[in-house]
Write a structure and sequence with these properties.
Oligomer: single chain
Number of helices: 24
Strand order of the largest sheet: 5-4-6-7-9-8
Helix content: 25-40%
Number of strands: 23
Radius of gyration: 25 Å
Structural class: alpha/beta
Shape: globular
């Protein structure tokens, strides 16, 4: 067998260059490049190998966690058919990746992580940044990646790549098993040469299948739907990854079945669709939640049923409600004692549609949910038009971006109170317009994620909506967006603290303790009690400006409108900074979230909150 001599690191890069995926006859390169920060653990290995392959794009990042967020957002934008690799040195550079790995795995997004590792030959141990163990010499900080990786391996010998790399690709390209894949690369082995089989570097195409559900399950599902009075579809992220949005809209419209959406599934239906109830659950609309409470058959498509979707298992109140779950992952298809239809969402909808023929729900049911859809449209109009003073509200700012932004744009957000408001209020005009990281709700994802989106599709405007808490967590890849010429329009809303947790704390009787950005009083951080507080002298607008962004400072609704219009003329990353009212909230709409309250307390408000929690806790149910 012909061989070629390569270092282990050179072999990794050359292999990645020649991996392709194909679905529905469309072929594309799987890896679009590699993000990295170099240190002694990878500069002479993967760093040198990347230098030898200038046709395999290298992206310089500023933070290791951020680079994984960028890769995950890129993969999500590409419907998991393309991604980036990420390389770091050993030590803190490697462990900084762990949060990003969790984000990718929890959201089922393919990302390849290549952290440097300690010396495999051990004789010079302990090396710089090595964690020593008295119980094993085969342990490093990279073992921390095991629980947040779908596949994990340490390449202690150069020849181990021959079996490890194909396994990594098997997992990365699996519709059901994908997530973060970690290959820990000892720094000495990265530089060692080996005679690899030339076939390892031949072009390989990984076919992404459209697995079809069992015919018996299809027939049973069709019977359940025909016998239902109030069926409801819950659209999850699997609708997008299967590229089944158009088929879902046709399916729902033809059969008269309303659709509600999880965070990952939002955009499956578009603004103006008669069957579009909008968001469901804790951050849902009253239209979706009222229909969900009465639904007798739930058709979950590509959803994992998080507690936000089910309102902590209190939302679906019909005593005999039944679930039909369409999912590529058997694990999710069986949830809630469902009739499992294990398969691709698009393929399953095609076959289920054929089984149902010209059946449709009653005219009365269609009139009921369409009346709610119209009532919800009016509620969003009301919130968009509030004009709260002296500081604008978050809902109004969302309205500005939604209504003035390009219909082909993408909005990205991740954590805090913004996701709940956006889930309810954002009107998606294209399937990719709503990009929310809410599987892990990661503060700091927003700017790095926006960069990945813009890299994946440079033709789209990208609007990053971020609060001051998330901005302070991780804003450094604002610099990378400027370096790469990837313009982002960042709307930075400053409410001087953690707005979301402040509201949650107040609802638990704790008065917003520890959620304000303010000087301590008598040695204690202030809560949200009435009266003035001494704010910290932090200027986030100046910070963004110092990192190279063009900044608009806004104080009113009208100033935000003018700034957003002017931002179109700026050719690089722009930040629209505005203070917002931390107490003007978008309401919750008839759903509950289980956050346990202290069982004993000397605080009267906590005691009251505990009583309310106990009353709701009794409504949780098992779906059996």
């Amino acid at each position: 067998m012909p061989t070629v001599r390569r270092t282990m690191a050179q072999a990794v890069v050359e292999f990645l260059k020649h991996q392709y995926v194909e679905r529905d006859g469309v072929r594309q390169q799987f890896f679009a490049g590699c993000s990295g920060i170099f240190g002694h653990g990878n500069v002479s290995g993967i760093g040198q190998a990347l230098q030898e392959h200038p046709d395999f794009r290298y992206y310089q990042s500023r933070n290791e966690q951020a680079m994984v967020h960028t890769a995950a957002a890129y993969a999500k934008m590409k419907n998991r058919l393309q991604t980036l690799a990420c390389t770091t040195s050993i030590g803190p550079g490697a462990t900084n990746l762990i949060t990003g790995a969790a984000v990718a795995t929890i959201n089922r997004l393919p990302v390849l992580l290549l952290p440097g590792d300690i010396f495999a030959r051990r004789n010079v141990a302990p090396v710089l940044q090595q964690l020593e163990s008295e119980h094993s010499q085969d342990l490093s900080v990279n073992d921390c990646f095991r629980p947040v990786s779908r596949y994990w391996d340490r390449i202690n010998r150069a020849d181990q790549l021959i079996t490890a790399l194909p396994e990594a690709m098997r997992v990365l390209t699996s519709p059901a098993e994908t997530g973060a894949v970690t290959l820990a690369l000892p720094q000495d082995v990265q530089t060692e040469a080996f005679d690899y089989p030339a076939a390892l570097f031949a072009e390989r195409v990984w076919t992404i299948p459209r697995n079809r559900p069992d015919q018996g399950a299809l027939a049973q599902a069709a019977e359940w739907i025909r016998n239902s009075r109030c069926p409801l579809i819950i659209a999850g992220g699997g609708v997008h990854y299967s590229e089944a949005q158009d088929l879902l809209r046709l399916f729902a419209g033809n059969l008269g079945i309303p659709v509600c959406e999880t965070h990952a599934g939002k955009g499956s239906m578009l603004h103006g669709d008669a069957e579009n109830l909008g968001a469901v659950g804790v951050t849902g609309t009253f239209a979706a939640n009222r229909i969900a409470k009465a639904a007798d058959v739930i058709i979950g498509i590509g959803t994992r049923y998080s507690d936000f979707t089910t309102a902590s298992k209190t939302l679906f109140e019909q005593p005999d409600v039944r679930f039909i779950n369409i999912n590529v992952a058997e694990f999710d298809a069986f949830k809630h004692h469902a009739l499992p239809m294990v398969g691709d969402a698009k393929a399953a909808l095609e076959e289920l549609s054929a089984h149902l023929g010209d059946w449709s729900t009653s005219a009365d049911y269609q009139a009921e949910y369409r009346t709610l859809v119209e009532a919800w449209r009016q509620e969003v109009d009301r919130i968009y038009a509030i004009r709260h003073t002296p500081l604008p509200s978050q809902g109004e700012i969302i309205g500005i971006i939604n209504e003035m932004g390009s219909p082909d744009s993408v909005m990205v957000c991740a954590a805090g109170s913004l996701p709940g408001d956006l889930h309810k209020l954002w009107r998606a005009r294209n399937p990719k317009q709503y990009h929310m990281e809410y599987g892990y709700s990661t503060m700091g994802y927003e700017i790095a994620g926006g960069l990945g989106i813009r890299m994946a599709d440079p033709s789209r405007d990208v609007y990053v909506l971020v609060g001051d808490g998330s901005y302070l967590m991780l804003s450094t890849d604002l610099v990378t967006s400027i370096q790469e010429g990837c313009k982002l329009t960042i709307v930075l809303m400053d409410n001087h603290g953690f707005k979301s947790i402040g509201g949650l704390s107040r609802s638990l009787g704790q008065g917003g303790f520890g959620t304000r950005y303010a000087y301590p009083r008598d040695g204690l951080l202030p809560g949200d009690e009435a009266g003035s507080v001494a704010r910290l002298p932090v200027d986030l607008a100046a910070n963004a400006e110092s990192l190279g962004a063009h900044v608009f400072r806004c104080a009113t609704y009208d100033e935000v409108v003018r700034a957003f219009e002017a931002s179109r003329t700026i050719d690089h990353t722009t930040v629209i900074y505005v203070e917002t009212d931390r107490y003007e909230d978008v309401p919750g709409y008839e759903a509950w979230w289980d956050v346990p309250v202290a069982e004993v307390s000397t605080m009267a408000d906590v005691q009251s909150a505990r009583k309310a929690w106990e009353d709701m806790r009794g409504r949780e149910r098992h779906y059996l």
